[in-house]
């Protein structure tokens, strides 16, 4: 006889309880396992790890290089389905990279943010980006992603040391990125756009 299937469960980083998403998942009948997670914010299945960002947090973590480090860890330990979930307030911001005090004040800064996000997706093609207009929509997305898949296990969670973003541009292209070696505020928008444009031109089709 086959053992009974495990109840639906999600491993959640304890810092995520400042948001309402864990509560919304619980209301959907999903068991919440709160722990301190070294990689990601939510582990939905053995293969699906999610890093959740608000728009303001996305902008800040792109500028500091923190998001790069987080994606490095996710792609190392969840090669099949690392996910970046971006939650935005549809009523306040619409589908855009603008939010409150972090709102962009110039086209240059907006292009800078888009360039950083584009470089991230080009450098990590396995990364999946999901956009959600509200925590309720995020809970529905998680529920759909888990359907028919095995449950995550606490004992299988990875433990990692801190990654570094220092070689990001060198890994992409040593010759074109030698003047900008990390995703930091000091990286010029012009260099970011140049590297992104060069990479896009090399893509087939």
Question: What does this molecule look like?
Answer:
The chain is built from 8 helices and 6 strands. It is α/β, with parallel strands linked by helices and 205 residues long. It has one domain (9-94, 111-166, 181-202): Rossmann fold, CATH 3.40.50. A 6-stranded mixed sheet has the order 2-1-3-4-5-6, with helices on both faces. The termini are far apart. Residues 99-108, 161-193 and 199-205 have low confidence and may be disordered.
Structural class: alpha/beta
Indicate the mean pLDDT: 76
SSE order, one letter for each helix or strand: EHEEEHHEHEHHHH
Using only CA atoms, what is the Rg?
18 Å
State the helicity in percent bands: 25-40%
CATH architecture: 3-Layer(aba) Sandwich
């Amino acid at each position: 006889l086959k053992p009974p299937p495990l109840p639906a469960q999600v491993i959640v980083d304890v810092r995520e309880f400042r948001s309402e998403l864990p509560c919304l998942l619980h209301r959907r009948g999903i068991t919440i396992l709160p722990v301190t997670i070294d990689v990601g914010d939510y582990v939905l299945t053995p293969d699906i790890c999610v890093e959740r960002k608000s728009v303001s947090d996305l902008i800040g973590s792109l500028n500091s290089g923190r998001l790069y480090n987080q994606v490095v860890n996710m792609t190392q330990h969840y090669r099949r389905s690392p996910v970046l979930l971006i939650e935005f307030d549809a009523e306040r911001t619409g589908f855009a990279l603008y939010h409150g005090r972090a709102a962009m004040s110039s086209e240059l800064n907006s292009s800078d943010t888009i360039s950083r996000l584009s470089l991230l997706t080009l450098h990590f093609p396995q990364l999946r980006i999901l956009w959600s207009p509200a925590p309720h929509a995020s809970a529905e997305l998680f529920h759909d992603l888990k359907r028919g898949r095995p449950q995550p296990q606490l004992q299988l969670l990875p433990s990692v040391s801190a990654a570094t973003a220092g070689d990001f541009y060198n890994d992409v292209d040593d010759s074109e990125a030698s003047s900008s070696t990390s995703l930091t505020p000091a990286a010029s928008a012009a260099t970011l756009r140049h590297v992104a444009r060069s990479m896009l031109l090399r893509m087939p089709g």
